[in-house]
Specification:
With 323 residues, the chain is an alpha/beta fold. It has a single domain, classed as Ribonuclease Z/Hydroxyacylglutathione hydrolase-like (Metallo-beta-lactamase, Chain A, 4-Layer Sandwich), CATH 3.60.15. Helix content is 36%, strand content 23%. It contains eleven helices and 14 strands. The strands form three sheets. A seven-stranded mixed beta sheet has the order 1-2-3-4-5-6-7. Helix 6 crosses helix 11, helix 8 runs antiparallel to helix 9 and helix 10 crosses helix 11. The longest helix is centred in the C-terminal third of the chain and has 24 residues. The N and C termini lie far apart (50 Å).
Length: 323
């Protein structure tokens, strides 16, 4: 399904299905100006995604030599088909920090070791990998990109789009902004009916603090049209920023209370005691691959609390515990 979201400048949105994902869909945006096209994000490297994306581009009359691709961040539902574009001669833009993570951490065993140190049971860790989209939907190969950074301006015909670095959801997460029309492509930085996952990243000191700072950064931009990468955009974007910040403040209080209320615990133990919206399931019934994201979010909040001097982390027998 293709719908037009702006006539001036000309912007379309394609609803790319994301099979077996709670996100349900990817909003793939296409900007057109003077015969040039910019596609924003791709979907998973799956036939279901490919058929919709390239069928839609054909329906719009897009000639691939006239197309550039912009990737908002490194998650597989956004970069999964990037190699198809580069194979067809298209230029692909991506934040240089996220691209470095794609290259450096293609071997997911490194991630597994980090989760083991946070108390994730080895048998569960191995079994969750069978359905973890961060693992099974990786691009088949490393694709070349033109690196971008904060403040860089991309031109599509007569339209100028500014890159805005908003680290947090990923280390190099990047929004695109059209200043002359006050249109913001949000990627996963702000979603309107679900809260973006914040996890821990190698070589990132405090991803939650980065994310909260990035919310303040994006709030300073005038936005007449705010376009998220998933689901709808009903509601006021500035009110949504406020509610996301309130959510994390409540989450931090919850995590601190859990740590205060028990013996020294691993992040896995703490995540098991946190409240999650998973159709009423308790932790024992949680899908294993969702536990991966839950534990990552617990670590992000624990790291923030360590920075505030409210929690201490210690290592015992190769496993981290918090008190």
């Amino acid at each position: 399904m293709i719908r037009i979201v702006s006539r001036e400048p000309e912007i379309y949105c394609m609803d790319i299905p994301l099979p077996d994902s709670p996100l349900q869909n990817l909003n793939c945006y296409i900007v057109r100006s003077r015969g040039k096209w910019l596609v924003i994000d791709t979907g998973f490297p799956l036939p279901e995604c490919s058929q919709v994306l390239f069928g839609g581009l054909e329906e719009l009359g897009v000639a691939l030599p006239d197309v550039s691709l912009f990737l908002t961040h490194l998650h597989n539902d956004h970069i999964g088909m990037a190699g198809t574009f580069t194979d067809r001669g298209c230029e692909v833009y991506m934040n240089e920090i996220d691209y470095a993570h794609v290259v450096m951490y293609r071997d997911t065993k490194q991630w597994g070791e980090k989760f083991l140190r946070e108390g994730f049971p080895r048998d569960e860790l191995e079994r969750q990998a069978e359905r973890n989209h961060a693992i099974i939907y990786r691009p088949m190969k490393i694709f070349p990109v033109t690196p971008v950074r904060d403040g860089l301006v991309l031109t599509v015909g007569d339209v100028e789009l500014q890159c805005i670095s908003v680290p947090g959801h990923t280390p190099g997460n990047t929004c695109l902004y059209i200043p002359s029309y006050e249109i913001m492509f949000l990627g996963d930085h702000i979603l309107f009916d679900i809260t973006p996952n914040i996890t821990f990243w190698p070589k990132v000191k405090d991803s939650l603090r980065d994310y909260l700072d990035s919310l303040d950064k994006i709030k300073a931009y005038p936005m007449k049209l705010a376009l998220p990468a998933h689901r709808g955009n009903d509601g006021d974007v500035y009110e949504r920023i406020r509610s996301i910040k309130a959510h994390h403040a409540e989450r931090l209080r919850e995590v601190e209370d859990i740590v205060r209320g028990g013996p020294d615990m691993t992040a896995y133990d703490i995540a098991a005691r946190m409240r999650w919206k998973m159709r009423g399931k308790d932790w024992s019934e949680f899908p294993r691959h969702q536990k991966w994201f839950a534990v990552g979010e617990a670590v992000a909040h624990l790291t923030y609390l360590i920075g505030e001097g409210k929690v201490v982390k210690k290592e015992t027998g190769g496993v981290f515990r918090y008190k």
